[in-house]
């Protein structure tokens, strides 16, 4: 099967384009196509889901799509309480709560954020586009575009590092002052800058600036120096996580996007949007300070 990218169907990322075009194919299969080299862009195999495509690109799929006859279930709009930090004609910025996934998957239970956004968008006359991601158990600032043009502009700004993202994390062990972790991730340049905010007996509260956007970058970088994010079940320490769960009630990774700053795509100004630390994380800090 061959697809041609035009200005009507263009998404910057290859995976988003294919997800929009291949409505009968499960998402897991689309990512498998890319990973195994069965997707060609301008006659060359591309194995990177985030590969950027442009109008005029030719995309060939070396798979038998007749195997996927059953139409994928349409994503339903579901009422969901949204914590809105900022909104205008082009942007919606949320304080994402922990424990909610952005998109449905085979393992997702309950309402996802995109379903809540679709419901809100239906009632306010716009189509929501997620510009970047936060993990299910990471809270904080999340930017949503209200049209495809703004989504494309913001997606490029994120990719080209014109967006400043600040996180707050509680890590295991002791750190002092200011530092940078630059260990490559997935063979790519990765840069995480941190500044110590407060030291506790066996942990450290840090402010983190992301200069690149690799998958799980903060969690993987701090784990790589032996100081994992507390509560992280994938890269963290099980015994430490258990202690914080039982002693302080922490049931997820202590990671929160507290601030995002970027140039407004529609006006000559810079937006800086902050999300207060969520109550469960504040509870942990109050406990540590006691």
Write the layout of secondary structure elements.
Elements: E1 2-4, H1 14-21, H2 27-35, E2 39-41, E3 44-45, E4 58-61, E5 84-87, E6 91-96, H3 113-124, E7 129-130, E8 139-145, H4 148-159, E9 164-172, E10 178-181, E11 192-199, E12 203-210, H5 217-224, H6 238-248, E13 255-263, E14 270-274, H7 279-289
Parallel strand pairs: 8-13
Antiparallel strand pairs: 1-4, 2-3, 2-4, 5-6, 6-8, 7-8, 9-12, 9-13, 10-11, 11-12, 13-14
Structure description:
The protein is an alpha+beta fold and 290 residues long. It is 24% helix and 26% strand. It has three domains: 2-64, RNA-binding S4 domain (Structural Genomics Hypothetical 15.5 Kd Protein In mrcA-pckA Intergenic Region, Chain A, Roll), CATH 3.10.290; 84-158, Pseudouridine synthase, CATH 3.30.2350; 160-289, Pseudouridine synthase, CATH 3.30.2350.10. It is built from seven helices and 14 strands. The strands form two sheets. Strands 5, 6, 7, 8, 9, 10, 11, 12, 13 and 14 form a ten-stranded mixed beta sheet that branches. Strands 1-4-2-3 form a four-stranded antiparallel beta sheet, with no helix packed on it. The N and C termini lie far apart (63 Å). The model has no long low-confidence stretch (mean pLDDT 92).
